[in-house]
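U., I forgot to send this yesterday:
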Amino acid sequence: MLNLTVYLSGEIHSDWREQISQGVEAHNLPITILTPVVTHAASDSVGGDILGDEDKKFWYDHKAAKINSVRIKTAIEKSDVVVVKFGDKYRQWNAAFEAGYATAKGKSVITLHAPDLTHALKEVDASAIATTETPDQVVEILKYITTQT
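Result:
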């Protein structure tokens, strides 16, 4: 078996991470899963909470983004595979950035999104090793990678 570290990047408004984690566990796959901070309020307010509030929203967000980037960059660098989920509820610029960062770092990227986002994500998908539509497809890829000899 091949041991992997997998970073689950992208949208935080659905249970896709839990579905992948449950699939990894159900198949007893040798995978360590890493994630960003997925509590939206905590992620957005970390800069102000730790370093102090700001009068301007730009600097408030800037502080949070810098602190969050430590976790994100570290997780991507430690990962063998980066799964990037794009949703339709909010713009996914952070997910696109993380896909690009992971690709630049030579990581294998798997994208996960609905078919209606294919055109918008064509450049991101072109860099991915696989483009999936369901968390189950991601689990099946991870199962194949880690268990086939």
